[in-house]
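Threonine synthase, pasting as requested.
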Amino acid sequence: MSQTATTPHTIREGAFGNGTHLSCRACGAKSELGPFYACMECFGPLEVGYEFPTITREQIEAGPKNIWRYQPLLPVPVDVASYPNTEPGYTRLIDAGNLARELGLRKLWVKDDSGNPTHSFKDRVVASALSATRELGMKVFACPSTGNLANAVAAAAARAGIRSVVFIPKDLERPKIITTAVYGGTLVAVEGNYDDVNKLASEIAGEEEGWAFVNVNVRPYYSEGSKTLAFEIAEQLGWRIPQQVVIPVASGSQLTKIDKGFTELGKLGLVDATDYKIYGAQATGCSPVAQAFRDGHDVVKPVKPDTIAKSLAIGNPADGPYVLDVARRTGGVIEDVSDEEVVEGIQLLARTEGIFTETAGGVTVATLKKLIATGQLDPEAETVIINSGDGLKTLDAVADRVGPKVTIPASYDAFVKAGLQ
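Structure tokens follow.
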């Protein structure tokens, strides 16, 4: 595996905040910060390592109402907020009492990331990747995507005034195609599924100079953005960690970084380092991690995706083995649900809490319901679920399920006759 092809660029002091090095998640070997994403010793994935100073709750609370309030905990410079960006984060944590009562839970919260600038959690990771792209002197902002990332990259690039090139499977949902193309960057439809698109992106990243593929060759910096979900959940709960969290799994990066975020908060003394369980949610039509978990395997066997939850349709998830590690270490579970259950999950969340989620959120809600029914999740423990995106992006999933209850003439008599009083 080659590293990024790039021309020499001087990285300024403090470009990556309190980040001090890159560390291999497989063998632990350390390397310098830079445009690197694979370990030179074992080809394992790299992630950012830090030396944190003393950080206080008051310091964080005084920051802006977006992810940059956590700048000291991210691989970004102190002046990151001064550069044009979409300023994502600090989304609602909703007390989901109605859904909790219906499912028999004592306390349930929904972290609603549909409130981000392009209506998904991907705005968080893209903002972190954009900072790294700028600091590394790279000129093209790019990604392979199942949809939400495409939206976020195109929007962030437009805001920052940088060229974007986004690669998607040609059969992606039409709303996600439109909400990417509208930003004016270069959108490329590729014949094949996401894994084919990702392979192409990796090849381009290894050959083209100055191309920053956010989830390929700047992935160590990109993925750190997901930690802000953990930071916000803890802060919004009054600086404590919930007992259980249910998270959708595509590549698996979001789940592993939420775990990393909780761990860092505990080590820094910003929260009490209490135990918690992390659960992963997949659609049955693309559930390689759930299958590996059930089988007791440490290796995730790739599959060909076949599900309506296209934003989770990654058949060869890069972080799959690490998702297994987190679930097993924390006492959680990786479970999957059918497409029928996904649609029911979308409708259940909308009916009980007024939140219209995309198919990934339907997977999460349906998995929560299944975990309770099968006794794998404690109904008495405080639980948070992640709504990663807006239902307007996946309208086709429920289009044939909802609509007018009745059609009547424009008269009061017709209203009465229809029994609508």
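Note for the archive: DSSP finds 14 helices and 13 strands in the chain.
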